[in-house]
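Pilot study result, target chain (150 residues):
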Amino acid sequence: MKKMIPEHSATLRVRYAETDAMGVAYHSNYLVWFELGRTEFCRLKGFPYREWEEAGVFLPAVEARCRYKHPARYDDLLEVHVAISDLTPFTLTFFYRIIRPRDGRLVAEGETKHGFCDKNGKLVKAPQPFYGWLEKIVDQSGKEGVVQVG
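Predicted structure:
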């Protein structure tokens, strides 16, 4: 079931090394930008990803999807908007929108789904305290500004 979850954003600038000969951002960089947004989301919400790993909880990606809408070009300033779109006892799904603020264009959107695992890659059900923290974010969504995803 899709949820309504508060959205957060991170800002980045397209670097020359991220573009092709035409100055257009190469497609695989969007997943890297999703990761940047996801990492900042966790940090801003009070649980940096480093703390997850130190506690023995890992979030390997099990699915990734990206839909490219408008090209990002060298030196474009971009905002990566991130929200939780689904939470189950075994998985966490993030929804992303990359916006170019200069003209308000939606550059790309997508999702990444992650399993909760231990350091050996074994699936873990509702790891604490992180799962409880995620549930609180979901529960608070009715009290904050939210984005409808899904």
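One observation from the pilot: Confidence is low (pLDDT under 50) at residues 1-5, 142-150. A full batch analysis is planned for the follow-on phase.
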